[in-house]
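Researcher: Here's my situation. A collaborator sent me these components and asked whether they could plausibly form a single complex. I don't have experimental data yet, so a predicted model of the whole assembly would be a useful starting point for our discussion.
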Amino acid sequence: MSTIRVDNFGPSAGGTTYSARGIAKAWVNFNGTGTIAARDSENVSSLTDNGTGDYTLNWTAAFGAADYVATGQTSSASGTIALGGLANYRDGSDVITVPAAAGWRSRWGDGVGNFFDPDIAMTICHGDLA
Amino acid sequence: MSTLNVSNITDGTTTVGTSYVVNGSAKAWCNFNGTGTIAIQDSLNVSSLTDDGTGTYQSLMTNSMAAANYVAFGGGDVNNANNDLRRNVRLFRIETGLVKIACGINANSDTKEDWTNVYTSAFGDLA
């Protein structure tokens, strides 16, 4: 068995970029009810509770631009069948949920027209760090 | 081109088997503008997009997956004054070289709509 210790790695000329660019640069599993808290995470410095179903995920290391891929899913610690998920809209007067380089303000809906606090929220982001 | 063949990778604190890096890395991801003339904003292993009508798209891979049994995710957002929270993304077909995506509102009667930003990612084995 061998172990290689490096701080950074990337493809050589002509090589593929799947490892460097395909690795998730941020992910978190957090409790969105009550006092929100991350259960486990990578590259997440803090979470901000902005209100019902409204959280800002702050990155420890920022992305290089706001064009990364951000996806999410909910679950339920109680096993309740929940159809909620990311609430995918924004408008001129409301919160911008599109990812930003330093973080992502995400909003979550219950699937029937209301914001809600999921007890298990999971997100994962792919892109290039700054 | 060089190939490094090792069993584990470590950052000095956490050690992980290289297979997790190789097999756990996304093999494709794409952030694209889904309105007007659709366009890739950033991507990995995505050759092109097709606009199949309102709220319906295909994301085509440069290098195909080995089989149509990989894991794919979708997401996005829409800049729309209608703040309907029943919006959703569905990857309604997964083929080795592409995913087909539908964006819209899941109500009693689905309404497809073009979204401002659409995100997809795929995990599995390349061909």
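Model: Some features of this prediction you could bring to your collaborator: Strands of chain A lie at 3-5, 26-31, 37-42, 44-51, 54-59, 69-75, 85-86, 103-109, 120-126. The longest strand of chain A covers residues 44-51.
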